[in-house]
Design a protein that fits this description.
single chain, 365 residues, D-Maltodextrin-Binding Protein, domain 2, 6-stranded mixed β-sheet
Length: 365
């Protein structure tokens, strides 16, 4: 059984890599209604529409980690701001999975930009040269964590108790929801039983809330303490204080999940309107070591001059109120700011892959 489950994990990740490898061979797409190109890998002709025009808009891609409708509406706000600042044209899309998002970046090497997590960036960087530009900042943090969620009334007290239990995770391409958890399982000797790919972090929380899984893994962002108190620090209890649990509920307009004056910012907050008592029903068992925040990355052959314009416009956009209605929205990706990033920052993600025994080179072998 152990060998069968591990084979299933390897197969799932192998499928991701296979998709990406095949995608990287396609470097030109055919617009609707146009004649098929005879040679897909030919360089663009002089007659080809310039990148960033109405006939050849820049693709802005988002992974489907939260409600796709929220992402699209917020992404359109961002695209409009970038268009006004640069004069370039953009089109927003949310592919069906993390793998499909990266597949599209590799298949569109000259004209795509993607908001992708660390694992997606590392895979895309190795497979087709996708290059990181920015990382997210969330309430001052350039990093985040993975969390393990269980039912609050369950008897689970440690990672070891998860052995053989049903695991819900967002997507096999999720850094916090999947990759960062594998070393924890390895260290604790945990071999999950049945698995459920929930299609996003909200779905993973929902699976525990509804009793569809024994535990779930999602992203963790520290709670915001009341003004005047020292901010949460690593090593402190990641969950809301026990004496405040009964007070947890959405605020009056439903925009925040509050526990007294504490604000919940982990993945449970995304279920607050559907399940106002989510904190009363779902608790944090543990969190992982730090993970680099998710990225804005560019496809490998993206024109340098256009990239510089977009980077400057994005920095300016991050300082406007409209940012909070876009990617800064806590129901979107919750980026409260951005900062420059480098490839070396994601070596820790590469180490996670190696520690897990699921290196990119030997997947599926």
């Amino acid at each position: 059984m152990r060998q069968k489950r591990m084979s299933a994990q390897l197969l799932a990740l192998a499928v991701i890599v296979a998709l990406l490898l095949s995608a990287c061979t396609a470097v030109q797409t055919v617009p609707s209604g146009a004649e098929p190109a005879h040679v897909a890998t030919e360089a663009p002709t002089e007659a080809a529409a310039a990148i960033g025009t109405a006939d050849h808009p820049i693709k802005v891609l988002f992974v489907p980690s939260v409600d796709a409708n929220v992402i699209v509406s917020g992404g359109e706000i961002m695209a409009q701001a970038l268009e006004e600042a640069t004069g370039l044209k953009f089109t927003v899309s949310v592919p069906t999975s993390y793998a499909a998002t990266i597949e599209e970046m590799c298949a569109s090497p000259t004209d795509s930009m993607g908001f992708i997590p660390g694992l997606g960036y590392v895979l895309a960087n190795q497979l087709c040269g996708v290059d990181v530009s920015f990382k997210a900042i969330r309430f001052g943090w350039p990093v985040y964590w993975a969390q393990v969620l269980v039912s609050r009334d369950s008897d689970i007290q440690s990672l070891a108790d998860l052995n053989g239990m049903k695991w819900a995770y967002p997507d096999a391409g999720s850094t916090s929801g999947y990759l960062a958890i594998l070393p924890l399982f390895q260290e604790a000797g945990v071999e999950p039983g049945e698995t459920l790919e929930a299609g996003g972090h909200t779905g993973s929380v929902r699976a525990v809330y509804n009793g569809e899984a024994d535990f779930a893994t999602t992203f963790f962002s520290p709670p915001l303490k009341p003004q005047g108190e020292e901010p949460w620090q690593p090593g402190e209890d990641p969950d809301i204080p026990a004496e405040l649990i009964d007070e947890c509920a959405p605020n009056d307009d439903g925009s925040r999940l509050m526990c007294g004056e504490w604000r919940v910012l982990d993945a449970r907050a995304s279920l607050r309107q559907e399940a106002p008592d989510v904190v009363q029903k779902v608790r944090i068992l543990t969190i992982s070591p730090e993970i680099p925040n998710d990225t804005l990355s560019f496809s490998p052959d993206f024109p340098a001059d256009l990239r510089a314009q977009i980077e400057q416009a994005l920095v300016e956009f991050s300082q406007t109120e409209a940012w909070d209605a876009s990617i800064g929205n806590q129901d979107f990706y919750g980026w409260t700011g951005i900062d420059t990033s480098s490839d070396a920052e994601f070596d820790v993600v590469r180490q996670m892959i190696e520690i897990s025994g699921l290196s990119i080179e030997n997947l599926g072998q």
